[in-house]
Design a protein that fits this description.
Layout (H helix, E strand, L loop, with lengths): L1 H18 L3 H7 L5 E6 L6 H5 L6 E6 L9 H13 L4 E7 L3 H6 L7 H5 L1 H9 L1 H5 L4 H21 L2 H8 L5 E7 L6 E3 L16
Parallel strand pairs: 1-2, 1-3, 3-4
Antiparallel strand pairs: 4-5
Helix pairs in contact: 7-9
Length: 205
Amino acid sequence: MLNSLLQRNADWSAERHRADPGYFTRLASQQAPEFFWIGCSDSRVPANVVAGLDPGEVFVHRNVANVVHSSDMNLLSALEFAVDALQVREIILCGHYGCGGVMAATENLPHGLADHWLEPIRRLARAYAIDLAQEQDMEARRDRLAEFNVIEGVRRVAETPIMQRAWARRADIRIHGLIYGLKDGRLRDLDCTVGPGQFLREVAE
């Protein structure tokens, strides 16, 4: 299987060279993406593919169920690099319907370390229990919970000292919450965008 993967890579590289001989030279010379994407690790939701973007156009961080933990140094390091070094202007928090992480968070089954990672989703499920109960079935409730997880993630990113400092120095950066439909391949805006001045508090430079 590895040989097959390497062959597909070789075919892709050759096709890129044929279509655009200077493509890899340009790509290697700099990284200047406009977007920072925080998404789920699910193999069916690759950021570049679902957003129709080429390599070099989006800086990506992915984890199980696109959870934003205030102590996740991996995510925070990527966010800081995206904001301070790459100077991205659009941050996208993207979840998806049919999320296995959300499903695991709502099951009364052991999932090992994932149970610790998914605790914020369980807290959301308790906080929005009345809203979730209005949905017609378990699939719909889980999909609604996936939306709440994205909205909460946008808020948590906005409240990080990284974003607070960026906005204090008047960086024009916005954070958007999107949800992806596995069944139709469409991204949907959850209308929870946060921009400069929102959640802003006094922060030392």
